[in-house]
Design goal:
Largest sheet: 8 strands, parallel
Distance between the termini: 29 Å
Structural class: alpha/beta
Number of domains: 1
CATH superfamily: Ureohydrolase domain
Length: about 290
């Protein structure tokens, strides 16, 4: 697998040209093969990169600057076989295995949320004490969707069963089947309904010093803040609260070892508010969670 050049032409703002000199590898997972409502998230990574040109490299929140305080290499989008979910997941896991073997921080952009499953599985192989922080409108705890276990509604159930439900912490949840909430309660999984920042702040001391993977579904935001996503759900948090939560993690004692931002579907937001918000969140995650 080559990392000396990007898979695609456009890159996120201030991407470092050299893989070896970078601490982080940013990559896209352009897959939406299993969505149950609106497709289009496979175009998210590319559009997030394109609108990032409007960002400042400097974070006024963190007093840090891209390519000065953190160097990352944008590897582009992983080439995935259209419609073949299992092969796509295998390729993603293989890609992340190589990133981790090189000692780099994996930073993914989706794509539907199922793409997070092979990444978290790969990270767990390197960090057996791994905990997951999950921000989302939906529980994603189904065993299957209409009989299909490979679904965007199943990745958190898969990782919870893989690493133990007590190691998974979900925030901002406002939708899911009754059985999903019951399963989480019975198995000791942490779920905070509706809000993110305050319950996250209360939980972070429990994770002090532990390796943590953070997965953020853009639909944790209210549709007023992020209409460009596949499964919008009213009653979400504001972009300001999500930024505050990212900064809360940055100021904590947890060791973030990888992350992703998924489910941006640009076609449903002609204003490009969602893609622009996503690009700013990615900047803050890069500057806040790497080389703290």
């Amino acid at each position: 697998m080559r990392f000396d050049e990007s898979y695609s032409g456009n890159v996120f703002i201030k991407s470092h040209p050299n893989f070896e000199e970078s601490q982080v590898v940013l990559y896209g997972m352009p897959m939406d093969w299993t969505v149950s409502f609106r497709p289009g998230s496979r175009f998210g990574p590319s559009r997030i990169r394109e609108v990032s040109v409007g960002l400042e490299e400097y974070s006024a929140y963190l007093d840090r600057e891209l390519d000065v305080d953190v160097k990352y290499f944008d590897a582009g989008d992983i080439p995935l076989p259209f419609g073949n979910a299992q092969r796509s997941l295998d390729l993603i896991e293989e890609f992340v295995d190589h990133i981790l073997a090189a000692g780099k921080f994996p930073f993914g952009m989706g794509g539907e949320h199922l793409v997070s499953w092979p990444v978290m599985k790969a990270v767990y192989k390197k960090y057996p004490d791994l905990a997951i922080i999950h921000m989302d409108a939906h529980t994603d705890l189904r065993e299957n969707y209409e009989g299909e276990p490979l679904s965007h509604s199943t990745p958190i159930r898969k990782i919870a069963e893989h690493i133990g439900p007590k190691n998974v912490y979900s925030f901002g949840i406002r939708s899911g089947m009754k059985e999903e909430f019951q399963w989480a309660k019975e198995n000791g999984m942490h779920i905070s309904k509706f809000e993110v920042h305050q319950p996250l702040k209360e939980v972070l001391p429990e994770l002090d010093g532990r390796p943590v993977y953070v997965t953020i579904d853009i639909d944790v935001l209210d549709p007023a803040h992020a209409p460009g996503t596949g499964t919008v759900d009213a009653g979400g948090i504001t972009s300001r609260e999500l930024l505050a939560s990212i900064h809360e993690i940055a100021q904590s004692g947890v060791n973030v070892v990888g992350c992703d931002l998924v489910e941006v579907a640009p076609i449903y937001d002609p204003s490009e508010q969602t893609a622009n918000t996503a690009s700013k969140l990615i900047r803050e995650m890069l500057l806040g969670w790497v080389n703290k």
